[in-house]
């Protein structure tokens, strides 16, 4: 919770706990390190990135995942992870959440098996001012 060293602009926390590890979080962590040219526990030379390896961040259903500052990026692949980091390098904020376009939140990736009625309003989100 407390950082005992100066952090980069983007603190990338890659979950490597069991569910994420089973979904190849090792390749996500390697991708993050390779693209940012940074190692776990350190900052990139330009202080844009700090990388941490963390335990479960509570998004196991959408593993593997990483947190960038306050945003969760889920359903990651090395290609998607690279794209997110390159977006951050350009000053963009890639859309957070599940990166698999077939998934809205944490429902099964193969489709709903229960509560299959249509959701009337999918616009609910956390208030933007939070
Ligand atoms: S194990 Fe990675 S979010 Fe839970």
From TrEMBL:
PROSITE patterns attached here? COMPLEX1_24K
Q: Does the keyword Metal-binding apply?
A: yes
Co-factor: note = Binds 1 [2Fe-2S] cluster.
Keyword Iron-sulfur, does the record have it? yes
Instruction: Give the UniProt keywords, A-Z.
Output: 2Fe-2S, Iron, Iron-sulfur, Metal-binding
Q: Which GO terms describe its molecular function?
A: 2 iron, 2 sulfur cluster binding; metal ion binding; NADH dehydrogenase activity
User: What are its GO cellular component terms?
Assistant: mitochondrion
| Cofactors named for this entry | [2Fe-2S] cluster
Q: Which GO terms describe its biological process?
A: mitochondrial electron transport, NADH to ubiquinone
Per UniProt, [2Fe-2S] cluster binds at 15, 20, 56, 60
- How is this protein named in the record? Uncharacterized protein
Tell me the organism: Trichogramma brassicae
């Amino acid at each position: 919770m407390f950082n005992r060293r100066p952090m980069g602009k983007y603190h990338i926390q890659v979950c490597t706990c069991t569910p994420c590890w089973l979904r190849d979080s090792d390749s996500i962590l390697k991708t993050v390190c390779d693209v940012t040219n940074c190692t776990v526990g350190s900052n990139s030379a330009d202080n844009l990135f700090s990388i941490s390896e963390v335990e479960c961040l509570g998004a196991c259903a959408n593993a593997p995942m990483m947190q960038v500052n306050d945003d969760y990026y889920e359903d990651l692949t090395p290609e998607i992870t690279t794209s997110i980091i390159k977006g951050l390098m350009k000053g963009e904020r890639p859309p957070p959440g599940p990166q698999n376009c077939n998934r809205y939140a944490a429902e099964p990736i193969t489709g709903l098996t229960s509560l299959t009625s249509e959701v009337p309003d999918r616009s609910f989100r956390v208030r933007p001012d939070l």
